[in-house]
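wait is this the right file?? whatever heres the structure
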């Protein structure tokens, strides 16, 4: 059962819903799902990532690999160490609570490979504050290297760019197939508590069950704009099998500009992207008829983005073929693609486990490793992609598995 919202969460969610309602009215009655997701997650001061809820970790809405175990970050550190040269840098995008940075930096220090600078670009002011607090406790020699950026660096870096579970948080478009044509899904508002009964929904509409004062956010379809129509037409042409009527899915049109923007920051080195996702043919499989959208609220996963608006995370799986295409288009090489389990095993997670001699600590770490590695947990659903520039030689993390043929 879905946990109830506290009074504070209810009030916050009403405020976010009211803002979305205003934007819908201003736009003439409908906004795209991408605009809805942008507001629900990032509206200044109100969106899920902009306001002060706990979000990550056991007391929050979801846990990520670095929050589960430092074993993950220590393996990432090993991959960084292979690539970092003297004077090299690390840039982390969307650093969450700062836990990955807090584990990577001491590992690199122990290996004598500390970067000259560890820069963090974080869109959430609230999370950036938590990062500052956590990383401020590191030894001075390490913490002095950490800086926060408010935009991508103008000078290309030599080193490593890291992003764990950031691509899935980029607002995406939502579409469905109807009568052989693409329709875009977005949101409209209807009168709730004080109004008449909601108007009949479209066949795919999913009326929100949360009444927000007198506003109810409902899903409505619309003709796609040219950008979405072209992207969907290109997508359908590439797929090995036709998609059935009423098929609904997501497409992230922000991915390519994001990769291009971040890619230009890499002068020489490696971009390492971790996320749950699939190659295109699997992502848009004819049997995956309801898309990949997932919402996270107090450790519950569900697929209704129109409840708990502003107090739950909304994500969509990553089409890694789109990431690879965007990377190649901006001059990056796709140097590796594998599962998280294969990456962690190749970077020596078993050896790290073996280093612990205390039986209690060993049992705890073994439990954490299982969550990171097992196929039913994060091991298979999460993928790792390596994008490189001016970098020769095989990467340690991709020595055990090469899934690039599936892209
Ligand atoms: C699901 S959390 C993952 C946090 C952290 N990387 C981890 O693994 O624990 C998504 C993170 O990406 C950040 N984010 C979202 N969009 C971003 C963007 N365009 N650029 C940089 N960070 C972004 C969020 O604020 C948040 O820190």
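ok assuming it is, sequence goes like this
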């Amino acid at each position: 059962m879905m946990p109830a919202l506290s009074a504070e969460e209810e009030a916050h969610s009403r405020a976010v819903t009211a803002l979305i309602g205003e934007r819908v009215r201003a736009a003439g009655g409908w906004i795209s799902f991408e605009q809805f997701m942008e507001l629900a997650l990032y509206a200044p001061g109100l969106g899920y990532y902009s306001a002060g809820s706990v979000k990550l970790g056991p007391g929050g809405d979801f846990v990520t690999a670095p929050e589960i175990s430092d074993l993950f970050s220590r393996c990432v550190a090993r991959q960084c160490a292979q690539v970092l040269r003297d004077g090299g840098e690390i840039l982390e995008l969307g650093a969450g609570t700062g836990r990955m940075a807090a584990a990577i930096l001491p590992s690199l220090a122990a290996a004598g490979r500390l970067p000259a600078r560890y820069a963090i670009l974080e869109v959430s002011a609230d999370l950036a504050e938590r990062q500052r607090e956590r990383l401020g406790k590191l030894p001075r020699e390490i913490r002095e290297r950490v800086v926060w950026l408010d935009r991508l660096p103008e000078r290309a870096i030599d080193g490593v760019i890291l992003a764990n579970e950031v691509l899935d948080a980029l607002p995406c478009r939502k579409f469905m197939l109807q009568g052989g044509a693409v329709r875009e899904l977005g949101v409209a508002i209807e009168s709730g508590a004080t109004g008449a009964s909601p108007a009949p929904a479209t066949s795919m509409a999913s009326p929100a069950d949360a009444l927000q004062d007198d506003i109810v956010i409902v899903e409505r379809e619309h003709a796609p704009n040219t950008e979405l129509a072209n992207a969907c037409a290109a997508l359908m042409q590439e797929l090995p099998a036709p998609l059935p009527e009423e098929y609904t899915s997501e497409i992230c049109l922000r991915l390519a500009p994001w990769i291009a923007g971040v890619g230009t920051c890499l002068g020489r080195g490696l971009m390492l992207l971790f996320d749950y996702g699939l190659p295109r043919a699997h992502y848009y499989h004819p049997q995956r008829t309801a898309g990949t959208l997932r919402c996270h609220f107090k450790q519950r996963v569900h697929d209704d983005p129109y409840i708990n608006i502003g107090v739950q995370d909304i994500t969509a799986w990553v089409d890694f073929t789109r990431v690879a295409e965007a990377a190649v288009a901006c001059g990056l090489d796709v140097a590796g693609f594998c599962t998280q389990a294969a990456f962690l095993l190749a970077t020596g997670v078993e050896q790290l486990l073996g280093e612990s001699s205390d039986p209690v600590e060993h049992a705890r770490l073994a439990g954490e490793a299982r969550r990171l590695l097992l196929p039913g947990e994060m091991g298979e659903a999460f993928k790792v992609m390596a994008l490189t520039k001016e970098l020769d030689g095989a990467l340690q993390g991709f020595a055990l598995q090469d899934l690039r043929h599936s892209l």
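Residues 49, 56, 64, 66-67, 93-96, 121-124, 127, 164-166, 169 surround S-adenosylmethionine (CB under 6 Å). so i think its the right one actually
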